[in-house]
């Protein structure tokens, strides 16, 4: 799934540009039990609806690591995998991540679930900018917590050792 962007040749009125119009849902940050802050909507959400964009500071992985951030942790959304599911790391397309550890949109408070109700979409994927947005994977009730699958690849990520408290029937047990 792709959204039109500055490289598409269309303008802002294109029906395939929903992320650029911003958040339209009454999203709330709320305190969960055991998982810190979480996000929910005061209104129900229909499947396929744009929820929010994941924003933060775009960094090259090496710069994030130099700054003491752990690439792959839950505060960094990495985007090594190109939209087609192919590993996109090349000299022309450096490894990029979005660092939401200090600043970012409401998406930085969305928790992980092994049976999530949101999915992520690459809105823009270029050499300099990776933009990622969250959409509803199914109809979501008002005040139901919004979640996506952090999708950690098994590796040396610290969060991998964190117990997952999502409560889903298919919970994998850790944040992997
Ligand atoms: C991107 S933050 C999400 C917002 C976070 N709850 C907060 O209060 O800032 C990711 C962190 O939230 C917690 N978290 C998210 N999903 C979780 C889950 N399913 N089980 C346990 N902790 C979770 C972990 O501490 C994780 O490192």
From TrEMBL:
Q: Which GO terms describe its biological process?
A: heterochromatin organization; methylation; negative regulation of gene expression
**Ranges for domain SET:** 25-151
Organism from which the protein derives: Emiliania huxleyi (strain CCMP1516)
Main location (coarse class):
nucleus
Q: Where is the Post-SET domain?
A: 160-176
Recorded hits in SUPFAM superfamilies, A to Z, give: SET domain
The record's GO molecular-function terms, alphabetically, read: histone H3K9 methyltransferase activity
* Protein name from the UniProt record: SET domain-containing protein
Cellular component terms, GO, for this chain's entry? nucleus
Give the stretches traversing the membrane: none
């Amino acid at each position: 799934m792709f959204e039109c962007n500055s490289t598409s040749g269309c303008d802002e009125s294109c029906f395939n540009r929903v992320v650029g119009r911003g958040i339209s849902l009454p999203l709330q940050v709320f305190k969960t039990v055991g998982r810190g802050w979480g996000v929910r909507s005061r209104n129900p959400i229909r499947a396929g609806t744009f929820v929010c964009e994941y924003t933060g500071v775009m960094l090259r992985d090496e710069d994030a690591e130099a700054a003491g951030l752990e690439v792959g942790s839950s505060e960094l959304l990495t985007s090594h995998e190109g939209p087609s599911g192919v590993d996109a790391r090349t000299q022309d397309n450096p490894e990029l991540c979005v660092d939401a550890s200090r600043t970012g949109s409401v998406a930085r408070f969305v928790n992980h679930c092994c049976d999530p109700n949101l999915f992520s979409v690459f809105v823009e994927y270029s050499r300099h900018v990776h933009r990622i947005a969250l959409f509803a994977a199914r109809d979501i009730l008002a005040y139901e917590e919004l979640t996506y699958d952090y999708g950690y690849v098994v590796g040396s990520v610290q969060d991998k050792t964190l117990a997952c408290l999502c409560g889903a029937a298919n919970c994998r047990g850790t944040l992997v």
